[in-house]
């Protein structure tokens, strides 16, 4: 009985979550230029098309650049914030945590409008810098939470032990806290990267034609011409996300193993 | 001439007072144990000594210098934590080298001292293992090596044996005592295990409810406990509640003439179980005797343990010889003891 419920719910959930994706993805290999079934043949031609078209490669490259920049900035901001917060008292810790996490809970359209307005006033609109900044602000809370979790999991006696051996606060942070919280930083970094990599709403408001990111290109591609190239791009995006998720899973496993000891 | 001087230290955690007017003088090279039940303030006192927690009032001096507000990283005290707090991302050798690296000692010197320390705690073979690949006893020795390698002025140990099994504990106690003798560093150990305290320490501070009840060598604590708590906590003891009247101790039907029974009032008579004998007849010269009945008799091989009832309420624990077998339960006997061995506690 319990087993059958388990299998029914698992299958239903998987179907619900993955079926739409699985239905579309084979069309990336279809020889027909229409997005329809039945498939007429198998080809990698559309992949060639995507990598051959400057509009797609430029968008891919833009996305990678923006995501990498946003990730670096988010790790810096979120990591510092989490480290600082652990040094404060309990009440201040709660207030600060709520503040740092707030970009996640505000609707993205609101955030997007705010960014567009603010960067417009600052004369930054359309630039890489504006996209990197905006995505960093969206990614920082994820880094913050992930780093905070791994810092809280550390045995406070480790820091005390290092202090008793004469290590300054900076030395302790550099040689004890940081290496042990590294899985948290890495997971946060991956989160931040992927958040930026498939972010649409804010990018839609901020990106100029020359700084267009992949999701935006995909979006306009959908409106212009429905072609298997779009599915190819979607497939690539999903693959990147999947890879990062797997990496994160590995990281968490290692982090758990480290904090168990 | 005392080396560590704790003067009238009080510690509050919000509304909770964890230490009450604690004062303690520790000589250089001494092995002192803070002994007390859970919650008696041992860890609190250790944290204050290490510099992790500020005192509410009072001073700590080392060699005459006031160190009350010196931060832990500048105290030069070694610490062994209850959970060892070994760095999981470093090998055993790197753990032990850490305090030397902090002090920017030359590479060659670090390697040499780490090796010497590994030899001292007999872990030479495990230098390149991670701490989590060692047994509890081995981890404890790594923690000890790491806390001693930089020649601290004082070594603090917070219940270092509590996570180990009994046999291992005994061996490590021997080893710790041996290391203490060889290095001559001042040790302050914390435990709730009175056997451990007596086994290792030069002096023991018995703590209860945030206060030091008595400070002295094991012999003094055992033979001359200052009060009922110490008498009950250090070793087994028989306590008979009664009062002094007309120079004699009285408890119900029991009346005893005792030396030192001068001041009138309520007292407890304390008698150690090994100071009492079960005698078949009301005995020989100089000894007091109380008629009693054997309530339970246990044979442990090295001795016989009896519980004897004196009157309706008082129960006496008695250690007897087991060479001739047990005196059966229900036997009518006499508890014989030397009045000199009795102690009156207020
Ligand atoms: N950080 C703290 N906050 C509040 N109360 C504390 C804190 N640390 C210890 N106490 C209290 O102080 C008392 C002594 O604790 P502790 O020193 O840990 O005892 P022990 O080590 O002898 O078991 C206990 O009543 C404990 O609840
Ligand atoms: Mg404790």
Describe this protein's structure.
- With 261 residues, chain A is mainly α.
- Chain A has a single domain (44-260), classed as MetI-like (MetI-like fold, Orthogonal Bundle).
- Chain A has 11 helices and no strands.
- The mean pLDDT of chain A is 85.
- Chain B is of the alpha+beta class and 346 residues long.
- In chain B, strand 9 (203-208) and strand 10 form a beta hairpin.
- Classes of the chains: A mainly alpha (261), B alpha+beta (346).
- The A-B interface holds A 155, 157-158, 160-168, 171, 175-176, 179-180, 258, 261 and B 50, 52, 71-79, 81, 83, 85-89, 98-99, 102-103, 130-132, 146-147, 150.
- The structure holds adenosine-5'-diphosphate and magnesium ion.
- Adenosine-5'-diphosphate (ADP) binds at residues 13, 16, 18, 36, 38-44 of chain B.
What name is given to the CATH topology of chain A?
MetI-like fold
Task: Give the largest interface pair and sizes.
Answer: A-B, 19 and 28 residues
How many alpha or pi helices of chain A?
Answer: 11
Number of separate structural domains of chain A: 1
Physical arrangement of strands within the biggest beta sheet of chain B = 6-7-8-3-9-10
Which residues of chain A form runs of ≥5 with pLDDT under 50?
Answer: none
Radius of gyration from the alpha-carbon trace of chain A, in angstroms:
22 Å
Query: In CATH's first tier, which class of chain A applies?
Result: Mainly Alpha
Q: Tell me about the largest β-sheet of chain A.
A: none
Number of domains of chain B: 2
CATH architecture of chain A: Orthogonal Bundle
Report the mean per-residue pLDDT of chain B as an integer.
Answer: 90
- Say how many strands of chain A there are: 0
Structural class determined from secondary elements of chain A: mainly alpha
């Amino acid at each position: 009985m319990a087993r059958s419920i388990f299998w029914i719910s698992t299958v239903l959930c998987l179907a619900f979550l993955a079926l739409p994706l699985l239905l579309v993805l084979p069309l990336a290999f279809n020889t027909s230029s229409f997005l329809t079934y039945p498939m007429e043949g198998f080809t990698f031609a559309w992949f060639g098309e995507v990598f051959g078209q400057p509009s797609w490669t430029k968008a891919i490259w833009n996305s990678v650049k923006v995501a990498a920049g946003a990730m670096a900035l988010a790790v810096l901001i979120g990591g510092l914030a989490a480290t600082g917060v652990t040094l404060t008292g309990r009440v201040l810790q709660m207030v600060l945590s709520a503040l740092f996490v707030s970009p996640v809970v505000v609707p993205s359209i609101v955030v997007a409008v705010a960014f567009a307005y603010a960067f417009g006033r600052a004369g930054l609109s359309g630039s890489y810098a504006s996209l990197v900044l905006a995505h960093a602000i969206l990614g920082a809370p994820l880094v913050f939470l992930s780093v905070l979790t791994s810092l809280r999991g550390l045995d406070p006696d480790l820091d005390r032990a290092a202090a008793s051996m004469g290590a300054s606060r900076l030395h302790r942070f550099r040689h004890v806290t940081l290496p042990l919280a590294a899985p948290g930083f890495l997971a946060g970094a991956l989160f931040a990267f992927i958040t930026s990599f498939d972010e649409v709403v804010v990018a839609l408001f901020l990106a100029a034609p020359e700084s267009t990111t992949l999701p935006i290109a995909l979006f306009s591609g959908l409106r212009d011409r429905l072609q298997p190239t779009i599915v190819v791009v979607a497939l690539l995006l999903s693959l990147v996300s999947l890879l990062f998720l797997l990496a994160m899973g590995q990281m968490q496993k290692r982090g758990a193993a480290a904090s168990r000891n | 001439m005392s080396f560590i001087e704790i003067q009238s230290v009080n510690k509050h955690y919000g509304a909770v007072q964890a230490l009450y007017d604690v004062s303690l003088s520790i000589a250089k090279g001494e092995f002192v144990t803070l002994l007390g039940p859970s919650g008696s303030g041992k860890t609190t006192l250790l944290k204050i000594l290490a510099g992790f927690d500020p005192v509410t009032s009072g001073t700590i001096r080392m060699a005459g210098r006031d160190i009350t507000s010196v931060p832990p990283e500048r105290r030069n005290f070694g610490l062994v934590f209850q959970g060892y707090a070994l760095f999981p991302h470093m090998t055993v050798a790197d753990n032990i080298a850490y305090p030397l690296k902090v002090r920017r000692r030359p590479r060659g010197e670090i390697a040499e001292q780490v090796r010497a320390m590994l030899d001292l705690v007999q872990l030479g073979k495990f230098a390149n293992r991670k701490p989590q690949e060692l047994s509890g006893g081995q981890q404890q020795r790594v923690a000890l090596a790491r806390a001693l390698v930089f020649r601290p002025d004082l070594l603090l140990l917070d219940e270092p044996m509590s996570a180990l099994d009994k046999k291992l504990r005994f061996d490590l106690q021997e080893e710790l005592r041996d290391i203490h003798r060889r290095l001559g560093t001042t040790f302050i150990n914390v435990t709730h295990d009175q056997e451990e305290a007596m086994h290792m320490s030069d002096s023991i501070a018995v703590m209860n409810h945030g206060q030091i009840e008595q400070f002295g060598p094991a012999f003094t604590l055992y033979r001359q406990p200052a009060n009922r708590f110490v008498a009950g906590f250090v070793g087994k003891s028989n306590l008979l509640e009664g009062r002094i009247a007309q120079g004699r101790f009285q408890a119900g039907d029991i009346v005893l003439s005792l030396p030192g029974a001068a001041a009138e009032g309520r007292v407890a008579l304390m008698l150690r179980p090994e100071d009492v004998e079960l005698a078949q007849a009301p005995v020989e010269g100089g000894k007091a005797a109380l008629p009693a009945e054997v309530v339970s008799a246990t044979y442990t091989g090295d001795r016989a343990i009896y519980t004897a009832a004196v009157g309706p309420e008082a129960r006496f624990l008695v250690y007897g010889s087991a060479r001739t077998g047990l005196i059966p339960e229900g036997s009518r006997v006499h508890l014989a003891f030397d009045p000199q061995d009795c102690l009156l506690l207020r």
